């Protein structure tokens, strides 16, 4: 066993680097006893809205809160159907259910892992029917209105939003972006002829600031971004027990506020986010050139021309995923699987009636994907070592069929 371990995620180093600034945030909160709401929350909300090019940002308790509140505030009602993808973290569908709706799925595009707009079109045209008088779309099987779609910008890459927004316009669906893994990612809209920030394209978007995210707090936190002032106002009420002013409750809400310490911490880190994202993109492109040597034995992430991803995760596909994960574990390299079971195959969603084969692209991905270490502080030397072990494994697999000469990765290891 090699001793210099490479963790899947290093959360210690960035916090050590920013320790003084982060401790100052905590000291300020103690000195002012400003723990809930107040200037630290408002300042962060303003800065994050600016970062996302949106008019509003509302800080909430988590990404799950953000999704749930965005759906409710956008008008999703109990009994509605909301469409998303089967390969996402369960919070996406939990939020749909908690808004009173039922999640339904369309499969992903095999190369981008995000919602396949062609399949969304087919779902709306084939599995749904438009009511001639109201113009509303109903799912034929369950006889309920389909009112929203949640594209997930998975692994830090934007979903293909132009065709999704076109379909949403045609079928009167609200679009709520799940941007929980994609802080700072961009999408080139052919309709508008310019790059747009993730979180600025739908009626509203949800971000998670869970510690391991590209922008993460030191605890739980999330936010909704939106250009719709009414939605922002409703979310401000929903996060705070439905009150528009203290003890005047217009509706029943939730306890879903962003606390001031997290807001202050996020504000400090936000200043570094663009640089951290650039560094992730650099790591991804280095992985891409090394692992490209695997001669097709491994599927690497694809960045379409319309996407500028922020590589929250770097996900490869290999047939013998378990073998590769085991081998990397033996040499001290941490990996992850995001996610091993598609949501339609989870016990929690048995009642939806889906089974094996219903969403083949998501199922295939679930059985072969492996996330390699990816974070701004990953050094060149660490990447070289990871790449060499991956290529050695791929070679060994190939040579168990045909004899091939092992190859060395030729890398410019001048960093770290
Ligand atoms: C795609 C996606 N959606 C939603 C969430 C939920 O965010 P949180 O954990 O902050 O509630 C996450 C977090 O892991 C996520 O990755």
Tell me about this structure.
The protein is 37% helix and 15% strand. The protein is an alpha/beta fold. The model is unreliable at 411-416 (pLDDT under 50). A hairpin with a 2-residue loop joins strand 12 and strand 13 (248-249). It has helices spanning 12-17, 19-32, 39-52, 63-73, 91-98, 117-127, 161-170, 229-238, 260-291, 321-330, 360-368, 380-399, and strands at 56-60, 81-84, 102-105, 128-130, 137-139, 144-149, 174-178, 186-189, 194-197, 204-208, 222-226, 243-245, 248-249, 307-308, 314-317, 369-372. The chain has twelve helices and 16 strands. Strands 1, 2, 3, 4, 5, 6, 7, 10 and 11 form a nine-stranded mixed sheet that branches. Bound molecules: pyridoxal-5'-phosphate (PLP). Pyridoxal-5'-phosphate binds at residues 62-64, 88-89, 91-92, 152, 178, 180-181, 208, 210, 222. Pyridoxal-5'-phosphate (PLP) binds next to helix 4 and helix 5.
